[in-house]
Amino acid sequence: MEMFAKAFTQQEPISEEAIAQAVEVMRSGRLHRYNTVDGEPSETALLEKEFAAYLGVKYSLACASGGYALHIALRAAGVRNGDAVLCNAFTLSPVPGAINNAGGEPALVGTNTDFKIDIVDLRAKAVTSGAHVLLLSHMRGHIADMDAVMEICDEHGIVLIEDCAHTLGARWKGRPSGSFGQIACFSTQSYKHLNSGEGGFLTTSDPDIIASAVLYSGSYMLYEKHPDMPAKEVFSERRLETPNYSGRMDNLRAAILRVQLRSLDENCHRWNELYAVIEQGLRSLAGISLPFRPAYEEFVGSSVQFSLPGWRPQKISSFITECSTRGVDIKWFGDNVPRGYTSRFESWHYLSDQGDLGQTSTILDGLCDLRIPLTFDRKDCQQIVAVITEALLCTEAAHPCL
Ligand SMILES: *Cc1c(COP(=O)(O)O)cnc(C)c1O
Fold first, then answer.
1. Which of 71, 99, 189 to mutate to test the pocket of ligand 1 (most atoms within 8 A of CB)?
2. 367 C-alpha to center of ligand 1: Å?
3. Residue 281 and residue 191 share a domain
4. Would you give the DSSP letter of residue 140?
5. What pTM does this model have?
């Protein structure tokens, strides 16, 4: 029997260089981002400058988490109590959670067989929902047709917030993911493309939005300590109207992230090499379907998704057991109980009635997901394909028909 022994949840260690930077912050005792001496920039401020430059946007704000960045992005975009907010039906639970936190009502948009937002459904709901914000998740790194998304947003005056939790380092037609919307949010939680345990970013080139976001994040009126901020008047207009939702990043995490950011592109390349091995292996297997990804979707293959279209739930469940017996930990979005990160929209009972999302439910029913941590190498990826091949054969033998 093929066996795989490595953990799908094991990150690479924090580099010695990043550890040294973190130790220096600890030696200084000044871990709070505003605890600086004589106009010296904090690690957090330097990180924000470097992150904005990396993405090619004007402003960036480092936050306590990705979900927190989404929450204040929605607030800064003007979401008020009871407002409908468009978002993907296929996403992770912090996305509808952030909308709820901002007082909004998620209006779910279906997914297509390539796991991207369904443009036809988006076009329809841009009208029927009455929403003036779209929170678009590039879920599991799949980037939708951004030309069509931008056209719909422009036509209906919809503010686009990109959730780039899985697309940091990705591009679409040469443009960085996160540079399309008025706002973009990123996560630096351990399972994303940078690892500070917890953390996130909000980015924008809009002076009004960054001023609101900085105030929401809990600036204690110390906003002048942020790098490259808009004119004072932009802050004075709103500083007394904007609640403090306290969710800053600290210098310790920022110090680690500054070092990691320098190897981000190289790491994305490493992810894609591993992804290619698994993808190529899976494409040769009958019964497994992989999404179509155009060449201009320069994704980061930090996870792989495939589906088993037409399979009964019991058969998929057996297949997943066959894989896990052999050490391959497949996540399944079709499971009717939420496990780990794979909850599906039917499990979010606090949402209002979403109408017919039957096609999306069917797509989720067969959707399998594998993380690809950078602690794997090419041989590991070949081994994973061998396990899946064997698990398919065993499942097929036990359940010969659909
Ligand atoms: C992880 C994630 C988030 C939230 O990030 P946290 O840092 O965990 O709060 C948002 N959206 C998606 C799609 C994610 O995967």
1. 189
2. 19
3. no
4. G
5. 0.97
What does the pLDDT look like over 267-311, one tens digit per residue? 999 999 999 999 999 999 998 999 999 999 999 999 999 999 889
Q: What's the CA-to-centroid distance between 399 and ligand 1, angstroms?
A: 37
Give how far Cα 163 sits from Cα of 64, 95, 102, 310, Å: 16, 8, 15, 30
Domain with 118 in it: what CATH number?
A: 3.40.640.10
Ligand 1 atom with the smallest distance to the CA of 91 is 13
Same domain, 108 and 247: yes
Closest CA to 213 of 251, 184, 173, 172: 184
Write out the residue range of the structural domain in which residue 274 sits.
264-398
Q: Does an H or E element contain 176, and which?
A: strand 175-176
Asked if residue 98 has its Cβ within 6 Å of ligand 1, the reply is no
Tell me the one-letter amino acid at 32: H
Give the list of residues 6+ apart from residue 375 with CB closer than 8 angstroms, or none.
6, 7, 10, 11, 12
CATH of the domain at 301: 3.90.1150.10
- Residue pair 221/95 in contact by the 8 Å Cβ criterion: no
Quick: pLDDT tens for 173-224: 999 999 999 999 999 999 999 999 999 999 999 999 999 999 999 999 999 9
- For 309, the 3-state DSSP assignment is coil
Q: Is residue 197 part of a domain?
A: yes
Residue nearest to atom 2 of ligand 1 (CA): 165
pLDDT of residue 38: 81
Q: What pLDDT sits at residue 402? A: 58
Question: In this structure, are 222 and 371 located in the same domain?
Answer: no
pLDDT of residue 39: 79
| CA of 136 relative to ligand 1 center, distance in Å | 12
62 CB within 6 A, ligand 1: no
Tell whether 84 and 224 lie within a shared domain: yes
Per-residue pLDDT tens over the stretch 211-228? 999 999 999 999 999 999
> Which of 197, 227, 261 lies at the terminal end of a domain, its last residue?
261
Indicate whether 4 belongs to any domain: no
- How many domains are contained in the chain? 2
Q: Are 253 and 286 part of one and the same domain?
A: no
Quick one: pLDDT at residue 106? 98
Q: Is residue 188 part of a domain?
A: yes
The parts of the chain modelled with pLDDT lower than 70 are 401-402
